[in-house]
Specification:
- There is one protein chain.
- It contains five helices and no strands.
- With 172 residues, the protein is mostly helical.
- It has a single domain, classed as Ferritin (Up-down Bundle).
- Helix 1 packs antiparallel against helix 2 and helix 3 runs antiparallel to helix 4.
- The protein binds MU-OXO-diiron.
- The site of MU-OXO-diiron (FEO) has 7 residues, from helix 1, helix 2 and helix 3.
- The site of MU-OXO-diiron has 7 residues, from helix 1, helix 2 and helix 3.
């Protein structure tokens, strides 16, 4: 059985993951209308991943005797000055999500809820990967600068990243 404090903290994280999914969906739309097919595909699959993160939390809360909340969400920013700025926002957002997960782990320990602590380890590992991927992408973008040919190749390469990420994911 979840304590009220843990239930509330998990529900707050459910909202964070849902908002992440919306943010990446908005980024997918922005990229798609700009003709960046590869980037759009990457963002659509990121958006799906965030929804999967949200659902995993929802199921956990309900299974442990709590009640998962489906909250109202903030509308995300839908335009960006450049695709570099968009990926900077993605990175900043992932850092924010990592901090949010860390805080959740801290509360689980305070509450001596070792089951939730154990459950959250999956998210801790996932955030390390997500931050690392966002950082790698930003490094590539900084190398490209304003080179149009570089952007073309980046858009093509990121499709491979999406495909290989999807292939390596375990079905959950
Ligand atoms: Fe669910 Fe990208 O963190």
């Amino acid at each position: 059985m979840l304590s009220k404090k843990i239930e509330k903290a998990l529900n707050d994280q459910i909202r964070v993951e849902a908002e992440s999914s919306q943010i990446y969906l908005a980024m997918a739309c922005w990229a798609e209308v700009k003709g960046l097919e590869g980037v759009a595909g990457f963002m659509y699959s990121q958006s799906d991943e965030e929804r999967a993160h949200m659902l995993k939390l929802v199921r956990y809360v309900n299974e442990r005797g709590g009640h998962a909340h489906v909250s109202a969400l903030k509308a995300p920013n839908v335009t960006f000055k450049s695709f570099k700025e968009m990926f900077e926002k993605l990175f900043e957002h992932e850092v924010f999500v990592s901090e949010s997960i860390n805080e959740l782990v801290h509360i689980a320990l305070q509450e001596k809820d070792y089951s939730t602590h154990n459950f959250l380890q999956w998210y801790v590992a996932e955030q390390i990967e997500e931050e690392a991927m966002a950082r790698t992408i930003l490094d590539k973008i900084n190398m490209i600068g304003n080179d149009k040919g570089g952007l073309y190749l980046f858009d093509r390469d990121i499709q491979q990243l999406t495909i290989s990420t999807a292939a390596s994911e375990s079905p959950e």
